[in-house]
Specification:
alpha+beta, five-stranded antiparallel beta sheet, six-stranded antiparallel barrel, 400 residues, 3 domains
């Protein structure tokens, strides 16, 4: 039977006396039976925790995962903005009408007009433990050549899981986050904002089947880190052991295994809630992320730069092309007028002295030093890459 941590024994004894919880005579620091887990929870409330991040924000419990659903359906009522009579839309309409007793032969499919209808794919994520009768948000995306889904209504669409079973049914008016206006074509103009061929339905799917989920395995709980890291995993295990003695160990950079103490198996939800409320300081890797497409640079607080010298020069090339006219002399009977192009190229190089940067241990000092160089974000990207090649940047460099 697990002992109460020595540092928490006085608080546990006081708590037990206040709540009239019996303890073993002569051994007040050791609780009996199912009271062990309850006393640990009470003691944990009074224990001083270091400032940090809740474990629940860093991990997910193994087994409590989402599942993806997908369905194929029709959006009707599009006012001539639907599909332009593709064969698969007409076949889908014929299949739908057949459910209501209207049979359309294959030879007559071309007579169906699909201008008010669009075939769509419907997707949704179903969380763990969600019950039959609850609702899900769904996303709707056009598959054909519909111009817009604005004003349309999604007809009843079954949503299937990976096992090809129906877990939810979606239906309802779609909400489009954009629009498309104008006739286009020769002499016309079209205005489009965002993507009018995708839409959402808030609470548009009704859950019909619950997906079973198990979070307790062999009287233990597996915590999976959202950002795998060996140091963070070790710190989480140590923080858990500070409350539940010798109950947690880090399996690898992603998983921390926690054994449930005596009495906790009767209330696994309370045990997991208490685990998620424990605070820990996660490891922050030294990392610089560069997005060359958008010119964005993000650096974590752990980056360091060793002493180095930096010089960044800018070369601006300006090419101008003009057209000159060459004409013959006045009253000349010979010669023709010619157009001659003329190109002028100017090269400007900004002077930049080499600056010696001392050892910079924080991201604030790194930013201040690069700003003193007058470097633009594009220049800073090149400087970071050169520093990494020179071995002066003590951080992981990620270029996207």
């Amino acid at each position: 039977m697990p002992l109460v941590p020595r540092t928490l024994r006085p608080k546990v004894r006081r708590t037990c006396r206040q709540l009239k919880i019996p303890v073993r005579p002569g051994r007040p620091a050791k609780l009996t039976g199912a009271l062990t887990f309850s006393a640990l929870l009470l003691a944990g409330i009074f224990s001083a925790a270091a400032a940090g991040v809740h474990i629940g924000d860093l991990v997910m419990v193994s087994g409590a995962r989402d599942n993806q659903l997908v369905g194929y359906g029709l959006v009707a009522g599009l006012a001539n903005d639907g599909d332009q009579n593709p064969i698969y839309t007409q076949q889908t309409m014929a299949n739908l009408l057949q459910r209501y007793g209207i049979n359309i032969p294959s030879s007559s499919l071309s007579a169906l007009s699909a201008k008010n209808v669009a075939v769509v794919m419907v997707t949704a994520d179903i969380p763990a433990f969600i019950k039959s009768g609850q609702r899900l948000d769904v996303q709707v995306a056009s598959m054909g050549d519909a111009k817009s889904l604005q004003g349309g209504v999604l007809l009843q669409t079954p949503l299937l899981g990976a096992d090809n079973k129906v877990y939810a049914v979606a239906q309802g008016p779609v909400s489009v986050g954009g629009f498309s206006a104008g006739g286009g074509g020769a002499g016309g103009a079209t205005v489009t904002k965002n993507h009018p061929t995708t839409a959402t339905i808030i609470g548009g799917a009704l859950v019909e089947r619950e997906i079973p989920a198990t979070v307790v395995h062999d009287d233990g709980v597996e915590l999976l880190l959202r950002e795998p890291d060996f140091t963070s995993a070790a710190r989480i295990a140590a923080a858990v052991n500070g409350t539940f003695t010798n109950s947690a160990h880090a399996v690898d950079s992603t998983e921390v295994r926690v054994q449930m103490p005596a009495g906790a198996s009767a209330s696994p939800v309370d045990f997991i809630a208490h685990l998620e409320d424990i605070e820990v300081t996660p490891d922050m890797p030294a990392r610089v992320i560069i997005n060359e497409r958008t010119g964005t640079i993000v650096a974590t607080a752990g980056i360091q730069i060793s002493s180095c010298a930096v010089a960044q020069g800018n070369i601006v090339i300006n090419v101008a092309s003009t057209l000159d006219v060459s004409q013959p002399s006045p009253f000349s009977k010979t010669g023709t007028t010619e157009v001659t192009p003329r190109t002028t190229t100017d090269v400007t190089e900004n002077k930049s002295a080499m600056v010696v940067l001392p050892e910079l241990p924080t991201v604030e000092k790194v930013a201040a030093a690069l700003n003193t160089l007058g470097a633009t974000p594009r220049d800073i990207m090149a400087i970071f890459q050169a520093m990494k090649q020179a071995g002066a940047l003590q951080a992981e460099l990620i270029i996207k």
